[in-house]
Amino acid sequence: MTDPLPVPVPILRLPRGPDSSGGRGFCRDSRGNSQHFPELQAARAALRERFLRLLSSARGRPARFWLWSGISVDAVFGAADAEPVAFQVDSLRTPLGVQGAALLRCGDVLAFSFPL
Amino acid sequence: MNDWQKKSPLDWETYLNKLVKVIAVEKLQYEGWVLTVDPVSASIVLATFPENEKASISFIMGHAVQEVEILREGDSHMKQRLARIFAPEESQAYSPEELEKRKNALKTWLETNHIPVAEQGELGRTLCVAGVLTIDPPYGPEQCSSSNEIILSRVQGLVQGYLEKQH
């Protein structure tokens, strides 16, 4: 007996493969930056570490905070969160009296400073 | 995001240890030596050393910065002065020899209790426990540092207990 006729199999059209430049869909620009990426990340890390150390040195110190519209308030620096999004302060002196503890939104604060 | 916030960390790095004038919104102006620029918020941290007054540190929020002008490069003396601001507080009470003794005693005690500990850092002054916690001089519970709260609290308790037994 002869072999049965092979059943034709439908051919799938696969999606186009990666282009020859090897981008694999990644943005071209970021590949250009990848040569600098380790330095970029090292710079980012060093700057951030300094920033976090300085924030921790602020803890417990009386500071002046400059807000919008020429307003400035005095308070004792407590803590800051990650971005920072807000600062926690103690003994915030306001025109209405001294607030034991308060949160100052970062968007409301223009600058703050404290003596070493 | 303003132009300052859009800069690259490599750009911000070029401002370190320089005397700058920062012009912020609402006509606020700050002059001082750049200690750092936060890569997350682009906030600038300046140190100022006014004569006959205490040095002060100012943080200018990234969103408030309009312009930063470099006035002067810092010389090596100024760089040292700025670097000292970062150095973790040197304890006045202990001499270098005493600190070395304390470090070795704590290290030995940890090893006796089967806790892996190694020295790290350029001068070997920092102890590294199990690769996840560091202890800086003068090697007390307050000088323990870790991102793992549970390990931090356990080791602080151990160090506290060890120090209490010494007295």
Automatic annotation (TrEMBL), chain A:
PROSITE patterns: SUZ_C. It comes from the Eukaryota. It holds the Pfam family Gemin7. GO terms for cellular component: SMN-Sm protein complex. Residues 1-34 are annotated as: Disordered. InterPro entries: SMN_gemin7 (IPR020338), SUZ-C (IPR024642). One of its GO terms (biological process) is spliceosomal snRNP assembly. Residues 1-30 form the SUZ-C domain. This is GEMI7 protein.
UniProtKB/TrEMBL annotation, chain B:
It holds the Pfam family Gemin6_C. Keywords: Cytoplasm, mRNA processing, mRNA splicing, Nucleus, Phosphoprotein. Transmembrane segments: none annotated. Its main location: cytoplasm. GO terms for biological process: spliceosomal complex assembly; spliceosomal snRNP assembly. It is found in: Cytoplasm; Nucleus, Gem; Nucleus, Nucleoplasm. Coiled coil: none annotated. Gene3D superfamilies: 2.30.30.100. Signal peptide: none annotated. Part of the core SMN complex that contains SMN1, GEMIN2/SIP1, DDX20/GEMIN3, GEMIN4, GEMIN5, GEMIN6, GEMIN7, GEMIN8 and STRAP/UNRIP. Part of the SMN-Sm complex that contains SMN1, GEMIN2/SIP1, DDX20/GEMIN3, GEMIN4, GEMIN5, GEMIN6, GEMIN7, GEMIN8, STRAP/UNRIP and the Sm proteins SNRPB, SNRPD1, SNRPD2, SNRPD3, SNRPE, SNRPF and SNRPG. Interacts with GEMIN7; the interaction is direct. Interacts with GEMIN8; the interaction is direct. Interacts with SNRPB, SNRPD2, SNRPD3 and SNRPE; the interaction is direct. The SMN complex catalyzes the assembly of small nuclear ribonucleoproteins (snRNPs), the building blocks of the spliceosome, and thereby plays an important role in the splicing of cellular pre-mRNAs. Most spliceosomal snRNPs contain a common set of Sm proteins SNRPB, SNRPD1, SNRPD2, SNRPD3, SNRPE, SNRPF and SNRPG that assemble in a heptameric protein ring on the Sm site of the small nuclear RNA to form the core snRNP (Sm core). This is Gem-associated protein 6. The gene is Gemin6.
